[in-house]
Design goal:
Chain lengths: 329, 329
DNA sequence: CCTGGTTATGATATCGTTACCATATAACGT
DNA sequence: ACGTTATATGGTAACGATATCATAACCAGG
């Protein structure tokens, strides 16, 4: 609509002076500044951000890539990020990979095409070698998920420890037949968590049974599914470590429906400490991940990278995990 | 990095021809087209989207304003929107108003500054008179929430009916002392839902007691809170209609903790039919809102408005609500 | 009175694309 | 042979802002 030139014409000043007013440049006569502001008001002038972006080479926009926004873990992460971004005058583009590599790559292209100033990866589907090329177009950092081959800043939790912590807890409760449900194997976070599980089992001299392992499960329905597969087994596990509170909730829901008592017949431990863990009955024992803190720190680091023009600086920040004991174990 | 001019120089052609290749213009010699594509590949050329936006006056970006992303209702809505947007090559900017008018207005500014092609309002904090001015800068439509004074396209549910439906159900179960917990009064959706409640109560010849009404409640903790305030009453209600499954879940959680049996001592009905409603024990009877459908339809309408350049076309699409009976009533 | 810094303003080039107009050859019908 | 249309290409002016350079008035210090 109204452009800077029209404001200039309207005031009899040059567009340069108008621009100075807009950007609070010091050397502008007070009377003229007022005049310009009035004209802007009158014409309903607003700076066109596409023009500013082109000229200034900055977008004030950040993309966050997650794998499933309906997962409360990601909702909370994104919530914390959005809050900080908004406070700093940044926009947040929500990119959902839906666990697909192609979608993730398409979202990374945003950096190439200069639609965003930086990208936060809260979920990683592709190998580092496919992501790395994008780092030359702007800052990329990971939050929550990670790749040890990658050299990018990261805000993560010690997943090996998390896996260990949960498993130890089950062992301390006297369990020996422990099942494990995790995400996709190709994900390092998933493998690390499993490593922690293995370690605790090994320490206790317990064997890991193939038929007690479930992979690539995320949601409530997956949890229900797993329950049935477990209970179809000849020798049933007495405890399960689920890779997320939603899965745990699904297991518990179905267990109760089939009169399998939790935790007496089957102990269940989740992961994340989502609100739901405290809501259902019995409350889910879980590994607390500091979702808010992770999101906030990641965004802070991103801002820092953008404003100080740092690129592939390598920095790993590890946030604490914690066991939260409730009634499901 | 590499611009269209460099590709032009590299091929010995004009930037116009390169642009034609990029945009699949028909009149380009096949051999030259190939040559351009090779040069683009070699130089790692990618069109700069800020320049395109400026030139083309389109951003391929849509903003969605919600009030709280951690509310699963909004997560699901946004999920459906993001999916469709991505398929059509659009970006989605997540705008969380956190129930604050100022934030909402700041987000509406995105349309003025040409950062987005359109805005979907899934939550409305401001009066129509404060939103209306923005409609002249681009398409705005509402999804879920609405304002009868507003003339913008809407995708909504019949909230009066929803309120009526839930209340009737409680009445049919024999309840007469029915409490009601809703959102903020200034929201029309909230008032309509309450109107439905009133109507059902009136039809049954039941009185509405002031001390049974709770306003401005949204989350799990609010639900817990409400339970305590209800149970501090001399004459306790035997049923409560909560304006969201999270609130209902909070009420139930706390009820159980204080040995108040659901539904025998207290029947609880929720709203939305979020996954949680089916998960907790007892399952929450609730009013199903077609979240996916609402999100999808809203985004479809937005696309239509953008591509056909429609503005304040008034169109109201009402999607069906449904009572889902579980064990909490 | 001259030099040099502070204050104030404007002209112009530039960011990277694409729309529009101009030009040129080839192909075609009459 | 000649106008007409389809095919192919390039030059240039936008889109709307701001960085840079140039200019000029003013005041202070020597």
């Amino acid at each position: 609509m109204a452009t800077i030139k029209e404001v200039a014409k309207h005031t009899g000043l040059s567009s340069t002076t108008v621009s100075r007013v807009i950007n609070n440049h010091p050397y502008v006569d007070e009377a003229k500044r007022k005049k310009v502001l009035e004209a802007m008001e009158e014409l309903g002038y607003v700076p066109n951000s596409s023009a500013r972006r082109l000229r200034g080479q900055r977008t004030n926009t950040i993309a966050v890539i997650i794998s499933r926004i309906v997962n409360p873990f990601f909702s909370h992460l994104v919530d914390a990020m959005e809050k900080l971004a908004a406070e700093q005058g940044y926009q947040l583009i929500l990119c959902d990979s839906r666990l697909e590599k192609k979608r993730e790559i398409r979202h990374l292209e945003l950096l190439k095409t200069k639609q965003v100033d930086g990208i936060i990866l809260a979920s990683i589907q592709n190998d580092w070698k496919d992501i790395e090329p994008y780092t030359r177009y702007g800052p990329i950092l990971s939050c929550n998920e990670y790749d040890s081959k990658a050299s990018m800043p990261m805000v993560v939790c010690d997943q090996k420890y998390g896996g260990y912590l949960g498993t130890r807890h089950l062992i301390e409760r006297g369990h020996t037949k422990i099942a494990y449900a995790g995400g996709a194997d190709r994900i390092e976070l998933t493998r690390d968590r499993f490593t922690g599980f293995e370690q605790a089992m090994k320490e206790a001299g317990l064997a890991i049974r193939e038929d007690y392992l479930f992979t690539s499960y995320y949601g409530i329905d997956d949890g229900k599914n797993i329950f049935h597969r477990m209970y179809a087994l000849e020798e049933k596990p007495t405890a399960i470590f689920a890779g997320g509170d939603e899965v745990a909730a699904g297991v518990i829901k179905e267990a109760k429906r089939f009169h399998c008592r939790v935790p007496d017949d089957l102990a269940v431990i989740g992961y994340d400490n989502q609100p739901i863990a405290d809501l259902i009955d019995p409350g889910i024992t879980t590994i607390d991940q500091p979702m808010k803190l992770m999101g906030t720190r990641a965004m802070e680091m991103m801002m820092d990278m953008i404003t100080h023009n740092r690129r592939t600086m390598y920095q790993k920040e590890v946030l604490p995990l914690q066991l939260v004991v409730r009634q499901s174990t």
